[in-house]
Amino acid sequence: MKSSPFAGHAAAFVTTLIWGTTFISTKVLLRVFTPSEILLLRFAIGYFALWCAFPHPLAIKDRRQELCFLAAGLCGVTLYYLFENMALTYTLASNVGVIISIAPFFTAIFSCLFLRAPRPGARFFLGFLIAMAGIALIHFGKGGALRLGPLGDLLAIIAAVIWAAYSTLTKRISTFGCNTIQATRRTFFYGLLLMLPALYFMGFEVSLSEFCEPAVLLNILFLGLGASALCFVTWNFAVKILGCVKTSAYIYMVPVVTAATSALVLHEEITLRMVCGIVLTLAGLFLSENKGAKKECEHVGTAK
């Protein structure tokens, strides 16, 4: 039975709602683990959780499908987080937050080039510009100023392109007729496998004693079970229903959720500039959900 668009929008909303709160867990865990250690732990937990949720092997029909899963794992798990973490070491977190949000723009381009989807209309690009203006206000709404970090900013742009490639691959994978949990698990498998060479250079020194602290255990479980296992399944489900362009527009919501969570949990100040940014971002998201993108799903099945 075909799922309704409402289910796709709900899945995308839940995904960004959780992803927007992960910074709190990451902050807690960075006191104990390195970024690469957090990355491996969260996706390893997510992988085994997906096996428990649906313990059935995935039958691959041909080599091209396997290559799609491998590419999705490389882009969505290994390279995206690797480049994002590297970007954070060379430029401001606010810069990275803004730059990563351009991913929907590249997703629209890749969708047209590789999925033969119709080009998004003017509403999508107008929504993109409005949302980017709002996201910039949110990130720089605390009195901070934009300071360029050329290398870090370039790495963040690459990360945005990589996430767009992952979303496009996910849409292609959705045409294989696989169960979403099985497909996500296969992607995680390749992401973890391809992560191992990077860990050789970055190091991985984790002991069981570090999980004795309840805050550490709960936060790594949240990232593994919620932000990884659940959210990648719901994101892939949303892409399957809505298409990669419309789903990617929900990335605009992540800074909004992050700002709201900062105020509620960390008691950070919400300025007038940030409120204006939130309004603009949500308006941009609304405009980006244009009617033209509905035809995307109809065209993807013909992609070679």
Automatic annotation (TrEMBL):
Domain of life of the native organism: Bacteria
Source organism phylogeny: Bacteria, Bacillati, Bacillota, Clostridia, Eubacteriales
Protein's UniProt name: Drug/metabolite transporter (DMT)-like permease
Compartments reported by the entry: Cell membrane
Segments traversing the membrane: 12-33, 39-60, 67-83, 95-115, 122-140, 146-166, 187-204, 216-237, 249-266, 272-288
CC per GO annotation: plasma membrane
Presence of keyword Membrane: yes
Family the UniProt entry places it in: Belongs to the EamA transporter family.
UniProt organism field: Harryflintia acetispora
